[in-house]
């Protein structure tokens, strides 16, 4: 029985391009983001992978990435479950602010703490720890049981919601996960054992 879980970060968004804190705002993909999403589907097609169910966030950049990817795979009508539990980390008062301007306003060290510490949230927002507190219960109750049962599952989401998942899957420390960079539109293919642990992992980044 194959227990397949594929994670993919959405393609480049308009706010990624503008270097803005995005969080729960809902910009669309850029042309490059569309190409990244299609390329992700192509990489999975090359591996002859198909899926039984897809999960994504409540945000359109992840949903559109998934839709484009599934088109490339020839599975445009795949059962797709959308839930805000998989949304990006909420950046609170930083949302919509240019990252360079934020450094000028608050100081480089403070912005670095907000972005790269595990448990310090920006004003009005979420830390990575808080993001994990909503992502992981959803994963364990909704997604993992389907993988364990032998379904092939793909999750299209965001840098930080996926970091929370990867931290749990790979048993990483807060320091290790904060150093983990996830490329836009780069699938990570996990094959799991019957207890949910990793049997193998394949990162399809360029």
Written description of the protein model:
- The protein has a single domain (4-203), classed as 3-Layer(aba) Sandwich (Rossmann fold), CATH 3.40.50.
- Helices cover 43% and strands 15% of the residues.
- It contains eight helices and six strands.
- The longest helix is centred in the last third of the chain and has 21 residues, at 128-148.
- 37% of the residues are buried.
Mean pLDDT: 95
Strand content: 5-15%
Distance between the termini: 29 Å
Report Rg. 16 Å
Sheet bearing the most strands, described? 6 strands, mixed
Report the CATH C-level class. Answer: Alpha Beta
Order of helices and strands: EHHEHEHHHEHHEE
The assigned structural class equals alpha/beta
**Counting H and I runs of at least 4 residues, what is the number of helices?**
8
Tell me the number of structural domains: 1
Low-confidence stretches: none
State the CATH architecture.
3-Layer(aba) Sandwich
Shape label: globular
Give the topology, please:
Elements lengths: L3 E6 L4 H4 L13 H16 L6 E4 L3 H14 L6 E3 L16 H8 L1 H9 L11 H21 L3 E6 L1 H12 L3 H5 L9 E5 L5 E6 L3
Parallel strand pairs: 1-4, 2-3, 2-4
Antiparallel strand pairs: 1-5, 5-6
